[in-house]
Amino acid sequence: MDLDLVAKKALLRKIPHGLFICGVREGEEVNGFTASWVTQGSFEPPLVVMAVRAEGSSHGIIERTKLFSLNILGVDQKELAAVFFKPQLAMGGRFESAPFQFGEFGLPLLDNALGGVECELVGQVVHGDHTVFVGEVRSAILHKDCEALNLASTGWSYGG
Ligand SMILES: Cc1cc2nc3c(=O)[nH]c(=O)nc-3n(C[C@H](O)[C@H](O)[C@H](O)COP(=O)(O)O)c2cc1C
């Protein structure tokens, strides 16, 4: 039977998502992008699951370096999320709007996010237009324990 595309889109868009800035680094090159397809995948070891667009510039960096960070945005950081999905003049340019430090594993962690985790890639599913990356959380820094930004509150959609 054919897939009901209207139902599929309506239902998949009901899956609740947060909004995060994923950070990557390869040598001197640093990049970040807005990601919403993120969830926890295990308590022990602590795993996170994130789907990354196969054609994006960060995808290859994650595959090669086997590392990424996830910065958790606060409820008032919608504008920052917008900076990190718009096209940029040069790789890493988005960070001009967002001061950051390198974490223990050398990945960018935004000063003004609620906090961030650095993850080591432990698995991936390569199938379709996004690759599902599974990362083990290796470091965590909490700046402030406040309400996080979620996709529904922005009026944007990514999914379906
Ligand atoms: C609301 C929203 C959510 C997004 N979520 C994701 C996501 O989960 N994974 C992803 O790969 N791209 C996602 N994107 C798209 C990337 O942020 C965008 O393609 C970005 O330019 C990729 O940057 P890069 O090519 O420098 O890696 C999202 C975009 C928007 C507007």
Secondary structure elements and their pairing?
Blueprint: H1 5-12, E1 20-26, E2 29-35, E3 38-42, E4 47-53, H2 57-65, E5 67-72, H3 78-83, E6 100-102, E7 108-110, E8 115-126, E9 130-142, H4 151-154
Antiparallel strand pairs: 1-2, 1-5, 3-4, 4-9, 5-8, 6-7, 8-9
The structure holds flavin mononucleotide.
Residues 31, 33-37, 51-53, 56-58, 85, 130, 151, 156, 158 line the site of flavin mononucleotide (FMN).
Polypeptide structure, described:
By secondary structure, this protein is an alpha+beta fold. The protein has one domain: Electron Transport, Fmn-binding Protein, Chain A (Pnp Oxidase, Chain A). Helices cover 17% and strands 39% of the residues. A seven-stranded antiparallel sheet has the order 2-1-5-8-9-4-3. Strands 6-7 form a two-stranded antiparallel sheet. A hairpin with a 2-residue loop joins strand 1 and strand 2. 29% of the residues are buried. Flavin mononucleotide binds next to strand 2, strand 4 and helix 2. The site of flavin mononucleotide has 17 residues, from strand 2, strand 4 and helix 2.
In short:
The protein is α+β, with helices and mostly antiparallel strands.
Instruction: Indicate the CATH architecture.
Output: Roll
CATH class: Mainly Beta
Provide the CATH topology: Pnp Oxidase, Chain A
Number of helices: 4
What would the keywords be for this entry?
single chain; 160 residues; alpha+beta; Pnp Oxidase, Chain A; 7-stranded antiparallel beta sheet; two-stranded antiparallel sheet; 9 strands; 17% helix; binds flavin mononucleotide
